[in-house]
Each structure stands twice: as structure tokens, then as C-alpha cells.
Amino acid sequence: MTRVLAIALAAALSAAAAAGAAPAHTLTHYHWTTVTFDDINQRAAAAFMARNPGVEVKLMLLPETSIPTVLRTARASGRPIDSFALSNGESAEFLAAGQAVRIIPAAFGKTSLADVLGMWTPGAFEACGGTWEGQYYGVPFELSNYVGWVNVRDMRDAGLDPARDKPRTWEQFAAVARKLTKVEAGRTARSGFACNSRVGIYNFLVLTAMMEQLGLDWGTERGLVSSMDRPDALARGLRTFTDLVVSSRVWDPSLADDDRVAFAENRAAMFLTGGSWFVGLLDTVPAPPVPLSDAEPFPYPRFPDGKDIGGVGYGYCLFVSSLSRDPELAFRFLDAMTSQPNEFIRYGYYQPRRRLSDGSSAVNAELARKYVPFYDQVFRPELTRTAVWLASSRGSQVIDLVWAAITRVIYEKASVESSVTSLQGGIRELFAVR
Q1: Cβ contacts of residue 262 below 8 Å, gap of 6+?
Q2: Which of 36, 110, 111, 215 is the most buried (most CB within 10 A)?
Q3: Cα atoms found within 13 Å of the Cα of residue 231, Cβ hemisphere only
Q4: What DSSP letter does each residue of 19-64 carry, written as one string?
Q5: What is the pLDDT of residue 371?
């Protein structure tokens, strides 16, 4: 059942209530509900109202999947809405439809957009889905990124030193995976690497990082279409990924269809679709074959001649609705909502805020080091180098086309070149490029 929670701070409104007057301003914000974070967001809303007498904030807490439906019907139904949260995978649809207001620097006490952007981790606006066609709309609220994960016990058993031998390039990644692959009685008992073979999105995201390392723009529709004119780079990325099955044989998709489960059960020694939150996830598995002490993250491998880009970044932005009656006030509230990174870091989640509007530092580095293992060595530097998830209202169709290109090579024994040709045709047809 949808749960709607409206919060009002009685003390902040007591004067208005005593006079029999309604609040001067009411802000209605739609946010996803989680048991862990609802209280943090409620406190942020209450503190904002305490600093702004006469302003009432209504937090409408809904299941995440309900928010897009609310936005689609708000304009027709006249439902009050000032601001809302969306993931990077959802925002393109609503930005393309003109349902959000561009960032107003004055709401943050700034005179330029550059000053606002400078308060966040570089690349966070793009990674969290806050941009559209070069314009900035969303304020980053939460940012995660994929890094590599390896079983260090498996490394030691294979004669490798985890401190020295974690792979830095894709060639090294395949070589390490070969040493970590275990074959018993002619069958793979443990893959050196695994990716989710049940759904295409995870494979798409790993391949996105490879393609962006090779200089292709897979973060925008225009860039994706333009990348189809570079078949050599497309083929190099696709071959590097599919060779893990076809040539190196370090990934057996039939052994496990969920890479995170396979890693936790030691049926895969490495995977590439986990963020800082994976520590907490693994820690909650009852008596897993792989204890938390054996799981260590490492930066995404790179191409030696490619760009210094890591795994895909993803997260959420907060937006001001084009239906808001006071967009600047709404952005002031969003500033308050995104000024609490130290509350979230305790759970291994990032609000990618570097500085608050008053100029003070936003993140307590000691807290981050306490709650996020390998924060300085892996997660903090990689967060500034994330690949960008595609911003497109046709993202699901793109994922299907890329997954089809991958599976043609892996399962149908098609050549990389023919699969690239099919991908080029599919992308160009999808975006009506002749």
C-alpha cells in the first residue's frame, strides 16, 4: 500500500496557527520511502521549516516505482507538486517533456551555475541524471558507482598477492581471471569472473564503461548515435567483453545467472557490478561461503591507451517541478535536503556533496573511512571518474539492442564485426537516423 507522509513542524507554524492563518507557502515534495532514510529526510524537512517560518513542507513518501506515475498524472489532475526525486534511469523522460525547472543559482546563495556545480563531486550531475541536452536541472541526492570486487582468498590460493596483483588493465583482468578459474572433472566449478546472464542491463553498464574509456559517448542520445560511426572502437569494446566467455573462457554464464550471488557463494571470483553498498549486503547474508573479510574492491580496469574512466555512476537527483508556484523556494528546500551527506555515509551511501552553500565542508572524511572500507583507495577517487549512464527516454530499447549484440557473440557464435553491424543498424533505426 502506498504510504503518504505529510510533515509539518508545529513550532514553526504556531504563530500562523494562533492567528488563524494558513502557511504563507506550502511545498509538496515527492520522495521514495525507505525505512532507513525516511527519518533522515524528515529531520531535514523539519529543520528547513524551523529556519523558514511560514513555510510548510509536505513530504509525500511513496514507493519509488510510484513516483513516475505521479508525475505523469500531476499536470492533468492538478495535483500539487513542487519537487520530486527520480533516479538517473527515469529522469530523461520527464526532462525531455519539460517537467522540471533549470537550476536557479540564487536559491543556493550563488551568482552562477558554475558555483553551484562546484559544490558537488565532479560528474555527479551527469551520473545522477540531472542534465538534459547540456542544461542542468537536477540536484544530486545520492551517488553510487560500480567498482571491481575480488575474492582475496582465491587470489592467495592461486599464488597472487592481493596488494600487488589486482588487475589494472583489461588484459590483466583476463589474465587474473584465468588464474582464478577453477575447473574440476572438465567442468567449471568457479568462474574467474561473472556478470549477470539473466538480464541485459548489467552487461550494458559494464560495456558502457569500456566504450567510454575508448572515447565513445554513451551517456547521451546524440553521443550514442555518433558512436555508431566508429565501428573499430565498438568492436574493440565488444570483443574485450565477450572474449571473457569466448576466448579466455573465464566466465561460464551457465554456472550462475546472478553475479553477486555467485560471488557470495564463491562460484565467481570477481565481478564488476557492486558499489560501496555491497559491503553491507554481503554482511547480511547468513553464514555466506565468502566472508566479508575475503571481499575487496578495486578500481575498474582501464585500457592503457584509453581514458581514465571507471565503472558507471548512478543515483538520484531532486528536481523542481515546472508546476511549482515558487521554484526558487523549492530549490532552497532541495539545497537543505542534499546537505546531509554525513547522515547517509553511515550506511555506505553517498550524497556527493563536497561543500555546503555556506562554504563549509560537507563530508566528514573520518566517518567515510569508518563506514566505507577502501574509501580513500577505491571509492573516493573512482567517484570522480565514473562513466555516465545513458540519459534517454528510450534507454530500455538501447539496453535490449546492446544485450542482443553481446548474446549474439556469446551464445550464437556470431562474429564481433557482424554483431557490431547489427547494433549500428538497430541504434540508427531506433533514433531514426538515416
Answers
A1: 191, 194, 255, 256, 268, 271
A2: 110
A3: 10
A4: TT---SEEEEEEEE--HHHHHHHHHHHHHHHHHSTTEEEEEEEE-G
A5: 86
Q: Which of 360, 363, 366, 329 is nearest to 343 (CA)?
A: 363
Q: Encode pLDDT of 125-179 as tens digits.
A: 999 999 999 999 999 999 999 999 999 999 999 999 999 999 999 999 999 999 9
- Identity of the residue numbered 20: G
Which DSSP category does 377 fall into? I
How far apart are alpha carbons 73 and 68 in whole angstroms? 9
What is the per-residue pLDDT across 190-248, written as a single tens digit (0 to 9) for each?
Answer: 999 999 988 899 999 999 999 999 999 999 999 999 999 999 999 999 999 999 999 99
pLDDT digits (tens, 9 = 90+) for 325-366: 999 999 999 999 999 999 998 887 888 999 999 999 998 989
The DSSP H or E segment spanning 329 is helix 327-337
d(CA 322, CA 346): 34
Distance, in Å, from the CA atom of 90 to the CA atom of 208, rounded to the nearest integer, reads 18
- In whole angstroms, give the CA distance from residue 315 to residue 140: 8
Give dist(CA 147, CA 386) in Å, integer: 10
Q: How far is CA 213 from CA 85, 385, 388, in A?
A: 30, 10, 11
Q: How many residues does the chain have?
A: 434
Q: Which residue, among 335, 361, 302, 362, has the nearest Cα to 147 in the 3D structure?
A: 302
CA distance 139 to 431: 28
Q: How many whole angstroms separate alpha carbon 315 and alpha carbon 233?
A: 28
Distances from the Cα of 252 to the Cα of 6, 100, 172, 197, angstroms = 50, 44, 19, 9
Helix, strand, coil tally for the chain in percent (to 5): 45, 20, 35
Res. 15 pLDDT band, cuts 50 70 90 = very low
pTM strictly above 0.70: yes
> How far is residue 151's CA from residue 159's CA, in Å, rounded to a whole number?
13
CA of 325: how far to CAs of 27, 81, 101, 329, 331, in Å? 9, 9, 11, 9, 12
DSSP secondary structure of 68-82: HHHHHHHHHHT---S
First to last CA, the chain: 47
Which of these, 288, 316, 29, 375, lies nearest to 144 by C-alpha position?
A: 316
Give the pLDDT score at 285: 57
